[in-house]
Amino acid sequence: MARSRGRQLITGLDVGTTKICCVIAEWSSIGTLDIVGVGTSPSRGLRKGVVVNIDSTVESIKQAVGDAEEMAGVEISSVIAGVAGGHIRGVNSRGVVAVSGKHREVSPADVERALDAARAINLPQDREIIHALPQTYLVDDQDGVKEPLGMSGVRLEVEVHLVTGATTSVRNVVRSVNRAGLQVQDIVLEPLASAEAVLSEEEKELGILLIDLGGGTTDVALFRDGAVWYTGILPLGGDHISNDVAVGLRTPTADAEELKKRHGCALTALVREDEVISVPSVGGRKARELSRQICSEIIQPRVEEIFTLVARELTKAGLEDAAAAGVVVTGGTAIMQGVPELAEQIFDLPVRRGVPTGIGGLHDVVQSPIHATGVGLALYGARGRRASGTEEAAGATSGSGMRRRLRDWFGELF
Fold first, then answer.
1. What number is the average pLDDT over the span 302-307?
2. 3-state helix, strand, coil in the chain (%, to 5)
3. How far apart are CA 32 and CA 30, in angstroms?
4. The domain 89-166: what is its CATH number?
5. Residues 6+ positions from 248 with CB-CB distance below 8 Å
6. Cα→Cα distances 68→61, 165, 189, 372, Å
7. Among candidates 193, 244, 241, 240, which has minimal Cα distance to 219?
8. Staple partner for 129: which of 9, 200, 239, 400, CB 3.0–4.6 Å?
9. Burial of residue 284, with CB atoms counted within 10 A of its CB: 0-12 exposed, 13-18 middle, 19 or more buried
10. Selecting from 3.90.180.10, 3.40.50.1980, 3.40.50.300, 3.30.420.40, what CATH number does the domain 201-356 have?
11. Which pTM does this prediction carry?
12. What tens digit of pLDDT does each residue of 22-61 get?
């Protein structure tokens, strides 16, 4: 939680492959979260969600944060940072403990011990638990318990979704933010942050699949019964589509990106046969006129591949029928025409685009799938602050000592 002249601010920093997005939000007098500043800058130091050049990443972070500070008229000192990348793994675990105390009532200490038992999985030395997200509790034979505190019993079980990541990759995100002159208040998995911004509680209860189509990665999260049951990161995204267009149409990558944004369509059936686009050539040759359908025929197979891989991973996890409420697509690539329609064909479920909701202030500035993660990080921090009741715990999650590890990392840096 950053403060500026008595203002209570929460800042989300989306460190993405193609862009860095900083969203500054403020608590309003009526208890809502108002967006007061937004800044974006091209990301030049990441590849597939992982930092590969710290200096370039630092410069991009400084630019995005500076633009957001200028819009908001404040200076910030700490952020809640998003993390993604192919190194992220999600696994479901279970912890079992005996209920302590004379009266055999479940206490906060019992819940914490059960969570610790669920975290005790065999991890390689180079991996860390980023989140431990409770799914459901069992007290003796009573299952489906959401809040076990105060219940009587002798045995407490908890089912947990653990999100793990490569220690070095997470540290490099922290290091980059720190070198930009900011503290990292918390680390949050990016699809979980996006879910905060674009999903409703009813969807999470019924079962919803979130697909965040980013530049270098596609982030996936499945919610059911109000809890996370699956998370995954695919090393495919909008950059791969742009590269396909560049190769297929023999045009420079920058022009291919622009063509994708302006004329791209993920479903060829939606493109009229008589639509023509101008395609820049390489080497100073003059531009060519081509049918827009040709561009769409290049894009559709790649988007199909991404959705098919997501469907395959869900089937592997035994969760292919869990998304009863359908699918929500968000992220920059989701803006492209035809993406929801193609997803409906692949998943055979209703699909909608996800844009940030539940915010005030400059909400019109962030009404785009591009800002889902940045806004979600601020909302995630706000929810953590409400749950903890203290400023210091803003953005707190059941992250298995993430704050302690952050302090340790900062100790190594200085």
1. 96
2. 40, 30, 30
3. 6
4. 3.30.1490.110
5. 294, 298
6. 11, 29, 22, 16
7. 193
8. 400
9. exposed
10. 3.30.420.40
11. 0.89
12. 999 998 767 778 999 999 999 888 888 888 889 999 999 9
Q: Quickly state the pLDDT bin for 397 (edges 50, 70, 90).
A: very low
Long-range pairs of 240-249 with CB within 8 A, sequence gap ≥ 24: 240/302, 241/299, 241/302, 241/303, 241/333, 244/298, 244/299, 244/302, 245/295, 245/298, 245/299, 248/294, 248/298, 249/279, 249/290, 249/294, 249/295, 249/298
For every residue of 277-311, DSSP letters joined together read: EEE--STTPPPEEEEHHHHHHHHHHHHHHHHHHHH
Helix, strand or coil, per DSSP, at residue 52: coil
Q: Give the pairing of strands 360-361 and 50-51.
A: unpaired
DSSP-derived letter for residue 370 is G
Looking from the CA of 353 toward its CB, the CA atoms found within 13 Å total 17
Cα diameter, the chain: 84
Q: Would you put residue 323 in left (φ > 0), alpha (ψ -120 to 50) or beta?
A: beta
Q: How confident is the model at residue 6 (pLDDT cuts 50, 70, 90)?
A: low
8-state DSSP, 392: T
Please report the sign of the dihedral spanned by the C-alpha atoms of residue 50, residue 53, residue 56, residue 62.
positive
Considering the chain, tell me which residue range(s) the CATH 3.30.1490.110 domain(s) occupy.
Answer: 89-166
Q: Which residues contact 82 (CB under 8 A, 6 or more apart)?
A: 12, 13, 14, 15, 16, 187, 188, 189, 190, 193, 373, 374, 377
Nearest to 220 by CA among 202, 194, 201: 194
CB atoms under 10 Å from CB of 297, counted, come to: 14
The residue length of the chain stands at 414
Single-letter amino acid, residue 167: T
Percent of the chain whose predicted confidence (pLDDT) is above 70 = 91
* CATH node for 2-86+167-199+357-404: 3.30.420.40
| pLDDT band of 210, cuts 50, 70, 90 | very high
Q: CATH 3.30.420.40 occupies which residues in the chain? A: 2-86+167-199+357-404, 201-356
Q: How confident is the model at residue 396 (pLDDT cuts 50, 70, 90)?
A: very low
